[in-house]
Amino acid sequence: MAATLLRYLAGIAGGCCAGTVLAGAPGQNALRAAGIQAEHIGWLWNLTLGLCALVFAAVVGAFLLALWRAPKDGAGRPPDLASLTRPERGIHRAVAWATGTCVVLLLLLLGADVVTSRALANLPLRNAVDIELIGHQWWWEARYRHADTSRNFTTANELHIPVGRPVVITLASNDVIHSLWIPNLQGKRDLIPGRTTLLRLRADRAGVYRGQCAEFCGLQHALMALEVTAEPDAAYEAWAGHQRQPAPPPDSDTARRGQQVFLGGACMMCHTIQGTSAQGRLGPDLTHLAGRRTLAAGTLPNNRGYLSGWIADPHALKEGVNMPANQLPPDDLHALVSYLETLK
Ligand code: CUA
Q: Quick one: which atom of ligand 1 is closest to the CA of 214?
């Protein structure tokens, strides 16, 4: 019973906004802190839950006591209502105590909130990873920035971060208000058109954590997810180094034909593949598409079947997206998907 209740509470805290959950998808759970910021928030949550549980128990206790002391009747015997008009002893003192206790508890929660906010703002930022994250309807564009701009790169719908190093995420929006929430790592922060906001976090435990847009932003708000992989520094640097590389040239006739389909058709108008002439900025950067675990911002597994279906008719899988349907001849679609699969 207690375990079920805990699981239920964890579900409320962690998964209220989850859309479809892919098989093998990472969880999102505010009660399983994987970083210092989430730990601070978890501490505040536990304190609030504990105090509120105490208050709830006290109120229920007072209610039961009142029931027990209420005038009782019996068969053929009217209740003794005299007690209703008798002045109660100590009533003023009890009300004063209850009011005083409530004020103290509320001040305690206010103080804890201020302490938590200060702790969240005080993350040391030396050697921080700098990411600009832009919300689009309904996907995430991630631009990794470096003092040496030749080391910048762009990816989509996934972040890799090094364990133990701070990360500063500059949040912006391309259209409407979104909100980034990675429950295992940090609280929510809005992405507001026309201005930037900052989110600082640090992962202290390696793992894959799910992030979710937490502000209703249109039809596919629920299918606007983000995967965050926290890994040791060396693994992160290897990943980042690979992301900086341009796409490898196609290595087979089919893939070469697929590249021609990509560059000769509508795809390149919206998508970038570094190392080719495709430099569109409307849709996700596809330079290392095949290295991602999901398609369409955590909506679909990234495999050949879904990728083909997504290209041919994205609206059947995620209604309302900006990507148009592409009615390609079967051979062209086959070649195009074969080419995209080489973009590791
Ligand atoms: Cu973006 Cu909800």
A: 2
- Cα separation, 91 vs 320, in Å, equals 62
Please name the residues in contact with 28: beta carbons below 8 A apart, sequence gap of 6 or more.
Answer: 14, 15, 18, 181, 182, 183, 184, 209, 210, 211, 212
Encoded tokens for 104 = 């103290």
Please state the atom number of ligand 1 nearest to the C-alpha of residue 215: 2
**What single string gives the DSSP state of each residue in 119-133?**
HHHT---TT-EEEEE
Return the closest-CA partner of residue 240 out of 226, 251, 229: 229
| CB within 8 Å of 15: residues ≥ 6 apart | 27, 28, 29
Confidence of residue 194 (pLDDT cuts 50, 70, 90): very high
- Mean of the per-residue pLDDT values of the chain: 90
Report the C-alpha gap between 207 and 75 in whole angstroms: 67
Angle at alpha carbon of residue 325, lines to 137 and 255, rounded to 5°:
105
Amino acid at 29: N
Structure tokens belonging to residue 100: 């005083």
Using a 6 Å CB cutoff, which residues line ligand 1? 135, 138, 178, 213, 215-217, 221, 224
Q: How many whole angstroms from 25 Cα to the centroid of ligand 1?
A: 19
In angstroms, rounded to a whole number, what is the distance separating the alpha carbons of residues 37 and 154? 26
Q: Which residue type does 343 have?
A: L
Q: What is the pLDDT of residues 135-187, one digit of tens each?
A: 999 999 999 999 999 999 999 999 999 999 999 999 999 999 999 999 999 99
- pLDDT (0 to 100) of residue 16: 42
Q: Quick one: tokens of 296? A: 């369409």
The CA distance from 135 to 293, in Å, is 19
What is the spatial distance between Cα 227 and Cα 307, in angstroms, rounded to a whole number? 18
Phi, psi of 189 (to 5 degrees): -145, 135
